Amino acid sequence: MSPELREELASALRNNDGQLGKVFALLEEGETTNREFVEGGAAANEGAVGNLRRVIKTVLEGNPPKAPSRALGARSSIGGLLRDNPGLSTAAREYLVRLRDELEVIATDSKAIEEEDKDLERASIEMEKSLEELPGVYVFTLPSFYRTVQKTDPDRHWLKVGNTDRAAGVRIGEQMRATGLPEDPWIARVYRHPVLDPRELESQFHRLLTAAGHSRASGKHSGREWYATNLEFLDAIGSALGCVISENHSPEDL
């Protein structure tokens, strides 16, 4: 990559008015740890920072992630750069289009998806074991839902936000058997509060999600606890409410 092309891409990242731009700005200021980026207000949690830093590395180095879910996220971000920067040079636009197409191949590779699903399942099982005595508000999704973005907002996914006064893992296992879910769910988060009981805490989450316009599933049999949202927004709610957050990070590169 020529210095001129790299600087043009860096300028597009620098001018991004979202979290991608905030992370890039802190990188240029010399921040190094994901915790520093969270404290600088670039993102709600370290996992989100890691994903955004991986996107930046992909753009500036042309080295795409191997995990399908990360490739999908990077593809979406690159699509945003193309959309928001109509004045890019022909060389920069062609480079980003090629990179986006390469990410699409990775994101839809069936073998890689199968391996990633196994990693998600292993991580979820470990989280269930650690939550046997820690009830609260839980968040789970299905692998296929996690890879399907909403047309109205590509940064949102269908996530179930519910509560349990028992172990979250037990409750989710019961739901899976009762509702016949087509896949094993991935437990992504559990939020606990020092004062609010799980039902009250769930009500706060649902109220804030609705107020922010994060749409709720409307299907007759879909359940009213499914929202089109993202983990970063949920973590921001949890932090604002003073929750203790147990998180299952998205998979690292395979």
Compile the SSE list and pairings:
Layout: H1 3-14, H2 19-28, H3 34-39, H4 46-61, H5 68-84, H6 90-107, H7 110-130, E1 136-141, H8 143-146, E2 157-164, H9 168-179, E3 186-192, H10 198-211, E4 226-229, H11 231-241, E5 244-247
Antiparallel strand pairs: 1-2, 1-3, 2-4, 3-5
Terminal Cα span: 25 Å
- Give the overall pLDDT as a whole number: 81
Number of strands: 5
What sequence of helices (H) and strands (E) makes up the elements? HHHHHHHEHEHEHEHE
Q: Oligomeric state of the chains?
A: single chain
Low-confidence stretches: none
Strand content: 5-15%
Total number of domains: 2
The biggest beta sheet reads: 5 strands, antiparallel
Could you describe the 3D structure shown?
With 254 residues, the protein is an alpha+beta fold. It has 2 domains: 3-108, no CATH class; 111-247, no CATH class. The chain has 11 helices and 5 strands, in the order αααααααβαβαβαβαβ. It has helices spanning 3-14, 19-28, 34-39, 46-61, 68-84, 90-107, 110-130, 143-146, 168-179, 198-211, 231-241, and strands at residues 136-141, 157-164, 186-192, 226-229, 244-247. It has a 5-stranded antiparallel β-sheet with strand order 4-2-1-3-5. Helix 5 (68-84) packs antiparallel against helix 6. The longest helix has 21 residues, at 110-130. The two termini are 25 Å apart. The model has no long low-confidence stretch (mean pLDDT 81).
